[in-house]
Amino acid sequence: MISKIIETLQNDCDLAPGSTLLVGVSGGADSVSLAHVLVESGYQIVIAHLNHGLREEAAEDEKFVEKFAEEHGFSFTSAYTDTGDFAEEYSLSIEEAARELRYGFLFEQAEAYMVDAVAVAHTADDQVETVLMHLLRGSGLDGLVGMKAYWESPWHPEIPLVRPMLGVWREEIDAYCQQNGLDTRFDHSNLDTTFFRNRLRQNLIPELTTYNPNIKTLLWQMSDTLSADQDVLENMVNTMLPAMRVEQSEDHVALAAIRFRGLSLGLQRRVLRQVISELRPGLRDVDYGAVERAITIIRQDQQKGQTDLGAGLRLQMEQDRILIVDGEEEIPHPDWPWLEWDDEIGDNFEEIELSEAWQMRLTELSLEQAEQEGFRENTDLFTAYLDAATLSSSLLVRGRQVGDRFQPLGMAGHSQKLADFMINAKIPPRARARLPLVCATDKIVWVPGVRIAHPHRVKENTKSILKISIFRTIKE
Amino acid sequence: MISKIIETLQNDCDLAPGSTLLVGVSGGADSVSLAHVLVESGYQIVIAHLNHGLREEAAEDEKFVEKFAEEHGFSFTSAYTDTGDFAEEYSLSIEEAARELRYGFLFEQAEAYMVDAVAVAHTADDQVETVLMHLLRGSGLDGLVGMKAYWESPWHPEIPLVRPMLGVWREEIDAYCQQNGLDTRFDHSNLDTTFFRNRLRQNLIPELTTYNPNIKTLLWQMSDTLSADQDVLENMVNTMLPAMRVEQSEDHVALAAIRFRGLSLGLQRRVLRQVISELRPGLRDVDYGAVERAITIIRQDQQKGQTDLGAGLRLQMEQDRILIVDGEEEIPHPDWPWLEWDDEIGDNFEEIELSEAWQMRLTELSLEQAEQEGFRENTDLFTAYLDAATLSSSLLVRGRQVGDRFQPLGMAGHSQKLADFMINAKIPPRARARLPLVCATDKIVWVPGVRIAHPHRVKENTKSILKISIFRTIKE
């Protein structure tokens, strides 16, 4: 047992003897023997105990652990919380509340004591129960691997959570306590032992043992094997995802569709799940059906289509991009200017701040100056050269409105619906509503990124030219 | 249901309507409805039925299926076998014997009818049972994925086995039979329904449903998800294995240790399992503990060590190679000459056949001829230049013997144990016993690949030189 614990710490957690660990000790055999083994093997430990204030015996448990620490000369820290209150306040189950409070406390103390890791005493039996629980709740590889011996948990950015006893069975622990004369409390405090887990432990596992007497060992080995398989797959996803992710914000991620389509089904599913979990950290289950629907849409190789991903997220195809978006959020396109207000430009031509770090600059040039700039050869669709004489002095920058029409350069005599023009020009859908349109007396004179209006083009007799450029000042 | 079946055939099996399928039909609802759906959807089918000769109703089942085929105008083929006899003859369980015979018959007929695939009617319920069965027997990913919809089975090198109904539940099938007025037999013939599987179906699955009413769907989705994960991992292994496999024969595989050590644990395990299954096709379970022991030995980064892999295989470290070997077999090293006999070379210097396509050639040269060849600069350790005058006329080629000693070039005056010399010279262990030693009056004059004996070196006064070269005529 000792060697299993130390090997796990050294090989899986990179924690050699001499390291400092904060050990969560309830007073039960698991955590008491963990603390004992660690000290015997040369680790520095701090004993931490949280009184959840849930049961009468809790105060006695706390005293017991304090005495255990004192007798052995360990550092000791404890606290009292009212789990019931906390559960009510945040609408959590008692088990969830206890878990939140416990890990919150352990990592707060871990930081205070500047330890290398927090150690908890989950056993091989706990692992088997966890695996079965995930199996019964519906799970892929990520659930079947159970708990990890080394976990960079959400509780602290630098201090990991380690579980050195995941390979040790309760029987071994009981034998160890007896051999070493360790006094322990009956473990009331395992608040993860919900009704469901208790049924597993007391009914299902014994039942499964009648199918195969070796079932616990086999399930443990299964989770161990799958865990290494999962590592391989996760590494692959983490290696390929950056090259595939073309946009990222708090509210969305965009993936390059062509790269995504080149992946095998297993990686496609994993990439989607990974992105979903980035946008919704802590989300427990990603819906199987939602992922399958999403993949069907992406594979259709069309440039539109969308589906609900659950958890308030949706997937939306946009030309060559796959957007995974917080359902409520409007997502600026990184390549298209963005306007959140309407405003007159007025007489003073100058720099105008748009949104998302886009700016508009207006300059008046003579024809000669413009020609020196080479404006006839200009191919930058975010720079326009207009005949100033055709423009009123009060230009307006605004978003599109219902009924807008536009007469693009080259189309003499008549105009078309702006909506149709935008679609034909392949402006990404999310960029359309917020595209800053330059207008004069309510006619659109420029659709930035696409074309100027025919009546305002520079003609042979043009004397004065208005140059408008749109550019981004900083990249997010 | 129809669309699920057709999608599986088209997307997973690359079989469009119009393809020809041989369908194994027992007479039960599953196989009868599969045949019906296939024909309705434009596939060409041949109905095949094997009478296992195990039950009284078997003859009636056969008649029923024949009539079903006749009424619908399908091609029909059937045969009778004595499963009991076959089981006894080959020491198989009745279930294994029935399976052998059934698939043997189906693929024999498939070849005769020149069909594109053999289709069998395993359902989503069968899949869930299979997954649970593997889970209870102990399994990694490869068992948890259950059956595959498309399988290049060992039964035929070109005709695949397909299972288009793996996504269809029995309930759907019963409803389909009712809607289409399909008459079916009670399915006695599912001989996979062993005692163990029956317990699963009748006791365990209903029991699990009390933990989660949705359990069957969830287990099905799990196997589907894992299957895609497995594909990714298998592709990786198949991509990397060729570059890592430095030797291969019917009896062994050698892997480059340095490359193996560079893999993550999950891939290491998979590579070992893959190699084991190549040497032992059809092996059902690779022992978890054996794989772990093997990896421990390989990681120690020593140049020796070995472990039993089960199934009559052993793993043996040999310098920079990992050998996985049929326990009984002597494995020639591809880079070292191999001798399976002892023989005198005699007077006539000529070409001598060794084993494993190695040859030895002896030539007599004058000192001038040898110098023209540049023998002093020679660095080929499989070519020796010896002073002919120091050699008796009867040279012998033999393997090493107990008590052999050797006086290597450069060591004047005394000799050392041949065994020590071979170890110091880093001759791979398996090459040592079979290395062809050239001897004169029982003294070793040359250890090929390493060094000649000191007394037989070419000296200033040497007139005549014996040149011996060892080379391989063909590469396997």
What is the 3D form of chain A? elongated
Report the span from N to C terminus of chain A: 52 Å
Report the structural category of chain A: alpha+beta
User: Biggest interface, which chains?
Assistant: A-B, 41 and 40 residues
Query: Strand count, sense and closure of the main sheet of chain A?
Result: 6 strands, mixed
Kindly report the average pLDDT value of chain A: 87
Number of helices of chain A: 16
Spatial arrangement of strands, main beta sheet of chain A = 3-2-1-4-6-5
Oligomeric state of this protein:
homodimer
Number of strands of chain A: 22
User: What is the rounded Rg of chain A?
Assistant: 32 Å
Strand content of chain A: 15-25%
Poorly predicted ranges of chain A (pLDDT <50, ≥5 residues)? none
Amount of helix of chain A = 25-40%
Describe it.
Two copies of one chain form a homodimer. Chain A is α+β, with helices and mostly antiparallel strands and 476 residues long. Helix content of chain A is 39%, strand content 21%. Chain A is built from 16 helices and 22 strands. The relative contact order of chain A is 0.08. Chains A and B meet through helix 6, helix 9, helix 10 and helix 12 of A and helix 6, helix 9, helix 10 and helix 12 of B.
Features:
39% helix; 16 helices; six-stranded mixed β-sheet; alpha+beta; homodimer
Which helices and strands occur, and which strands form pairs?
The structure is a homodimer of 476-residue chains.
Chain A: H1 2-12, E1 20-24, H2 29-40, E2 44-51, H3 58-72, E3 75-80, H4 83-89, H5 94-112, E4 117-119, H6 124-137, H7 141-144, E5 150-151, E6 161-162, H8 170-179, H9 195-209, H10 215-244, E7 245-248, E8 252-256, H11 257-261, H12 265-279, H13 288-299, E9 306-310, E10 313-318, E11 321-326, E12 343-344, E13 351-353, E14 358-366, H14 367-372, E15 383-387, E16 395-398, E17 405-406, E18 416-417, H15 418-424, H16 429-432, E19 437-440, E20 443-447, E21 451-452, E22 464-472
